[in-house]
Amino acid sequence: MENRKAFCYCHIDGEIVLDSNRLQSYDGGRTVGVMLDENMTLSEFVKQFEQKAGTEIGNKRLMYVLPFDNSQLLDLINDDSLKDMISFGDQCVHVYAVSIATGQPSIPLNSSTNARNTKAFISVDCSISGCEWHLTAYRVGGTNFMRVGTFNNQYFHSAQDLVSIDPCHRGKLTSHLVADKLRLLPNTTPNQIRSAIETEHGILLNYKQSWRCREQSLVDINGRPEDSYRLIPWICKRLMETDQRTIAKWTSSGGMRFAQLFIAYGSSIVGFVHGCQPILFIDGCHLSGPYRGTLLSACAIDADNQIFPLAYAVVSSECYKDCYWFLKNVKEIIGSVKVTIVSDRNHNIRASVAEHYGHEYHAYCYRHIKENFGDEVRKLFPRVKQAKENALKLMDAIAYARIEKDYDVALENLRLFKQELASWVLANEPEHWVMSKFCHPRWNHITSNIAESFNSWIRIERHHSIFALINEHRDKLATKLFDAKATISSWKGEVGPNIEDKLQENIARGEFLHVVPYGYHLARVNTGKVDLAVDLATMSCICGEWAMTGIPCPHAAAVIRMKKLNIYDFVQHWYKKSNQELIYHNSIKPVEMHDVPTLESMDRSFIDSDETFLLPPITKVPVGRPQKKRIESQFNKKRDYTCTRCHVVGHSRRSCKNPNPS
């Protein structure tokens, strides 16, 4: 028996419209012809359709009509439906590739409907009283396809019904409209999406609909957050294949659930070991994705005192186990380099630093110390603002004292102010945060602001899935390294712009100091209050600033100027242009991402091979909206209110109680 054949008109890039008689027609787009055979499969038909049209069908919906009923659109979903189309097509059929959002007439979809849905059966009725619109569909075998059972496309709506309905726009139907915008601007808000869709497509969404549209678009772009954990072994392997110096490792808990991830790129490791000052800033910040967690980071500084990211880890929290694992990996990548660690006083970080680097190399962040000291002052002087300000000034004098004598004087002043506060300072390990007490170089970095800058630098990426975070951080780091390397050629001298500004400031401060030479390298500098000794041979000044910063202090600058020497010769090599070139000599290599495994391929690999795929961690999501804004420091400057009635600072006109305003 001869195979049954039919000629198919394939329509694409247009839209289906209804005429006054409810007949379907296709407006716009292009039409190509494909010869059908009853032995042809749906995948073969789609392949020929795409070849003739010169484009991919993608997520478009394939629909067809039969000659004896041009008002009914039928879904072309499997091989059986293709055979039905050929059998009843009478040698000529029409197939339409329709966008998901515009695949059906708009009135039933935009009407409010009542649905009774399960995974195996769907029943939908129009909720407007008297309307006969009705649809039922059932699942085809064990597939994800649904076959329409009954469909009554007759609807009866009054004019009042049409103006009173609340349109229901599903996130999956409208998400593709904003996908391109979110790829470029992932931080677009739901309200901005509402305005864009209304302006460009004439679709009115409420806030909840636009929020769901945004969430669905991000899933379409980045994949489901739970699926991204399955790609971690693959991306770690690919990163180390791309650059053998890169370290990317992960661990899992019971049941192959994700536990920890550590990544340090080869260009960052080599740049730090060969050029950066041996000081690291450690901090952690919360991830606000669906599985939460903490991102631990280790950052250094380059020759111009700019942030240089070294490594990061994604872990469950700042517990001892995670901090120990992270700092152990950092220790391994830097080798035998002796580094100073700057961080807050988190007890898990403290214990881990002591284990791997030695407790004496741990410098505490003074900003966090000052926060705790401020809380102590508030307890002793409740509701006394001036007392707190005075106590904090005395605390600053203690922390920034560069020589032992200045520290003793500052501590005695605090003791005279309040004995309990002086005792608090002595009880909180001043040898780890006072400049004159810390016995290892820290290059004048008394806070962990560099690590805080890293947290702010990846503020947007912290909200995304872990796979998106890895890729976006890599792109961002590659751009930063490239830009920093490009700016080296614009350095006017032997040091960077920030160091140049500091040198010029110190030269200006030392311009009117009186210098008495005591030899080729020795000099005495009179400031008007005290005499200070400067030794150019050992690059030291009795004030302590030169030794602690590596940059000539104002007293040294005055001596160098008097002797007409090259001031750049007395700057430590960490700040030189040659060191900056070593730091940024290597760049991150692009990672091939064209063959990222799909869910289907990962499922087949899991069955057919011994490939490892991770499951997401088990987390408990707290009640309420996730907190995305950081808690502000008590030292953040706030605007002081000035009363417009009495012109007194401290309150507003509404709360003014002054009986006689001026």
UniProtKB/TrEMBL annotation:
Q: What domain of life is recorded for the organism?
A: Eukaryota
Q: Tell whether Zinc-finger is among the UniProt keywords.
A: yes
Alphabetical UniProt keywords: Metal-binding, Zinc, Zinc-finger
InterPro entries to which the protein is assigned, alphabetical: MULE_transposase_dom, Znf_PMZ, Znf_SWIM
Tell me which stretches of the chain form a coiled coil. none
Record GO terms (molecular function): zinc ion binding
Protein's UniProt keywords contain Repeat: no
Residues annotated as transmembrane: none
Q: Which Pfam families match?
A: MULE (PF10551), SWIM (PF04434)
**Annotated ranges, domain SWIM-type:** 532-564
Name of the protein described by the UniProt record: Zinc finger, PMZ-type
Q: Which organism is it from?
A: Corchorus capsularis
